[in-house]
Amino acid sequence: MYFLTPLKCAVFEINCEAFPKQVNFLIDEGMSISKGSNAVISYLHFFDNYGLGEEITRLHCDNCSGQNKNKFVMWYLAWRCIHRLHKSMELYFLVAGHTNFSPDWCFGLFKQRYRRSHITALCDIQEAVRSSSYQNINIPQLVGSEDGQVLVNTYNWQEFLSPYFKPLPQIKNYHHMRFNCDHPGVIFAKQYADSKEVSFSLLKDPTTLPPLELPLPLAPPGLSEQRIQYLYNNIRQFCAQDHRADLTCPILWGF
After folding, report:
1. Which residue, among 137, 162, 161, has the nearest Cα to 213 in the 3D structure?
2. What residue stretches are annotated with the DUF7869 domain (predicted)?
3. What is the DSSP secondary structure assignment for residue 150, as one 8-state letter?
4. Quick check: 255 pLDDT over 70?
5. What pLDDT does residue 55 have?
6. Phi–psi pair at 214, nearest 5 degrees
7. CB 185 within 8 A of CB 203
8. In angstroms, rounded to a whole number, what is the distance separating the alpha carbons of residues 45 and 41?
9. Is the pLDDT of residue 239 over 90?
10. Which partner from 57, 112, 154, 252 sits 20 to 30 angstroms from 181, CA to CA?
11. Closest Cα to residue 107, out of 95, 125, 80?
12. Cβ contact 4:86 at 8 Å
């Protein structure tokens, strides 16, 4: 197994430190559209399902520009405040070298359980997340099932927001950002906590606001024929010979 490539499952975590609870999005290989901002924003849109009606939100994340620190995430937070889904949203990027925080703690609990579990299917990973703590801190959320059923949509936020917003210049220099519903489309940013705050309007036209409706969902790519054949020929022999093997490494049918 060391030299083989089993079915992959990505994990994206959002932690609410006030409870504490962590939602772990489990992304089956066939459901993985991208690891970029479209996916991150779609999972961050979890406020609709896991939110508590909070009006003020403070978010902490690392400085990964491809996923977190980019113009599309800024536009999404501005969009939420424009439509008063939140009155205020604050975004803090951790300083390099100090990026270990609560999601790493909860992921560590899951990793310990994963190492002691027999994993042959996505449902086994889901159970490993659920049972990784006695206080039900880790919450599993499947993005989709092995049979192709989509449970959490990935939306085309980039195409949806681009006509209305413009990028923040020198975005990588800032670590503290905030948005307020009383200033639609305006981002307030500071380089560090004790730096002078600057403001910048992200709207291309302040008289034209983005709609409240959601973007179009992106269809998951699924597994290629070559990948399905690889799993069947090389991985199925290591799976428990039950229905889970049919989900993870489906039987090939020839004509």
Report:
1. 161
2. 55-191
3. B
4. no
5. 92
6. -80, 155
7. yes
8. 6
9. no
10. 154
11. 125
12. no
The helix/strand count (H/E) of the chain reads as 8, 10
Structure tokens at 108: 């560590």
Would you state the structure tokens that stand for residue 4, as one six-digit string? 């083989």
Cβ-contact 119, 125 below 8 angstroms: yes
Q: How far apart are CA 51 and CA 68, in angstroms?
A: 20
The answer to pTM > 0.85 is yes
The predicted pLDDT at position 253 comes to 60
254 pLDDT above the threshold of 50:
no
CA 163 to mean position of chain CA atoms: 23
What pLDDT was estimated at residue 209?
A: 94
- Record the tokens describing residue 95, joined without a space: 């300083």
Taking alpha carbons only, the member of 117, 150, 66, 140 closest to residue 240 is 117
What DSSP line would sit under 204-229, residue for residue?
A: S-TT-PPPSSPPPEEPP----HHHHH
Token pair belonging to 78 = 């501005």
Task: With CA atoms as reference, report the closest residue to 29 among 59, 58, 1, 7.
Answer: 7
Q: Please give the single-letter amino acid code of residue 211.
A: P
How many residues in total does the chain contain? 255
- Could you say which DSSP state residue 31 is in? G
Counting other chains too, the contacts that 8-15 makes at CB distance below 8 Å and 24 or more residues apart are 8/32, 9/122, 9/125, 10/35, 11/107, 11/110, 12/39, 12/40, 12/43, 13/103, 13/106, 13/107, 14/43, 14/44, 14/46, 14/50, 14/103, 15/101, 15/102, 15/103, 15/106
- Higher-confidence residue: 253 or 162? 162
Q: What is the DSSP letter of 36?
A: S
